[in-house]
Amino acid sequence: QVQLVESGGGLVQAGGSLRLSCAASGRAISSGATGWFRQAPGKEREFVAAISWTGLARYYADSVIGRFTISGDIAKNTAYLQMNSLKPEDTAVYYCAAKIGGLDRSSPTTGDFDSWGQGTQVTVSS
């Protein structure tokens, strides 16, 4: 398994931006795919964005299209989630996930990934 550490969360006003980072160790993220999920209090963990490093195919949840961008730096073994135009409903704990191999669907589920970070809190105030 790969070890993942998220950072970059915090408190931001609606309309603001944050960039989350996911630093990986133990395995190259380029060996497969990386995803971001989020979980708000009382809700299930939901898909946000994912990237398959072979071919660089990117996938997004409908709720974040046009506002969030997933990217990465292979040399640093780090993935990013740039979040712009944040809304209060984006408030959640954000988790980074990784898997070996590519993605076979445009809306991955938690079961598609074998490694998870501890999460970073994002709070958007109105």
Radius of gyration: 13 Å
What string, H for helix and E for strand, traces the elements in order? EEEEEEEEEEE
Q: How far apart, in Å, are the first and last alpha carbons? A: 39 Å
Q: Which regions are unreliable across 5 or more consecutive residues at pLDDT < 50?
A: none
Query: What overall geometry do the principal axes of the alpha carbons give?
Result: globular
Supply the number of helical segments. Answer: 0
Question: How large is the share of residues in beta strands?
Answer: over 45%
Number of strands: 11
Describe the overall structure.
With 126 residues, the chain is mainly β. The protein contains no helices and 11 strands. It has strands at 3-7, 10-13, 18-25, 32-39, 46-52, 57-60, 68-73, 78-83, 92-100, 115-116, 120-125. The strands form 2 sheets. Strands 2, 4, 5, 6, 9, 10 and 11 form a 7-stranded mixed β-sheet that branches.
Core attributes:
126 residues; mainly beta
Describe the structure concisely for a colleague:
The chain has 126 residues and is mainly β. It has no helices and 11 strands.
Secondary structure topology:
Blueprint: E1 3-7, E2 10-13, E3 18-25, E4 32-39, E5 46-52, E6 57-60, E7 68-73, E8 78-83, E9 92-100, E10 115-116, E11 120-125
Parallel strand pairs: 2-11
Antiparallel strand pairs: 1-3, 3-8, 4-5, 4-9, 5-6, 7-8, 9-10, 9-11
